Amino acid sequence: xxxxxxxxxxxxxxxxxxLNNLLQGEYFSPVELSSIAHQLDEEERIRMAExxxxxxxxxxxxxxxxxxxxxxxxxxxxxxxxxLKVWGLELIxxxxxxxxRLGIDPINERSFICNYKEHWFTVRKLGxxxxxxxxxxxxxxxISDTYLxxxxxxxxxxxxxxxxxxxxxxxxxxxxxxxxxxxxxxxxPRLIGEELAQLKDQRAQKTDLEQSLEVSHSYDGxxxxxxxxxxxxxxxxxxxxxxxxxxxxxDLRRAIRLSMQDNNRQNRxxxxxxxxxxxxxxxxxxxxxx
Length: 290
What we know:
The chain is an alpha+beta fold. It has a domain at 14-195: Alpha-Beta Complex (Cathepsin B, Chain A), CATH 3.90.70. Helix content is 59%, strand content 11%. The chain is built from 8 helices and 6 strands. Strands 1-6-2-3-4-5 form a 6-stranded antiparallel sheet, with helices on both faces. Strand 4 (129-132) and strand 5 form a beta hairpin. It starts with 13 loop residues before the first helix and ends with a helix.
């Protein structure tokens, strides 16, 4: 699909996109198509002047806007037809009685130009496959051979004018490449308007999400402050408990030390008393012996 040239819609330049998508390249610009339109306007003016430059019809013609172009970028079928003549191509109305009598299967043609309410787009065969190259689509749309006739019939029912492009189209990379391979399309392209609407929805959803996240972050920030304060209080409480425990342990160690000292004093006292008693008993024993 990347090798297929596909100009997307810009303003009302669908005629330019239609021609360039048909020829598969940037062959025409708005300036060149405007030049063709002005040339057609001049030819029409000359024909109208043949009836007299003072006639009512001529004065009315001069007051009317161009029928071949307007300020929005629209170009008429005459402009498109004259642009294609440069490449030796001509347009035949597909649903005209003359063409229908030929009984040509659409699949045997090479390309079509379709128009409805001032919108132009191309349907072209590249390699061995058909593609809808509508500039309003996000990309080329693959059309199967079995669906082509139904697709064109549906366009006619919707009020489209369909023109068959006759003549040899210029060579292009996509046509050469697709002669050797066939492509598959997993997802059909959508209208650009639908994509823009989806992008707007996504932006709106993103904005809503960002706003909700901001609120959530604001709330979480308050919660975090409360949690930090609670953690600080717990830490201070634990610190006080540790200090108290350390004081208790110190008191306990002092009590044990004092107790041991008392025991030592008592032991020394008992030893002293025992020694005094032994001395007294020894003296008495000596007196008895004497």
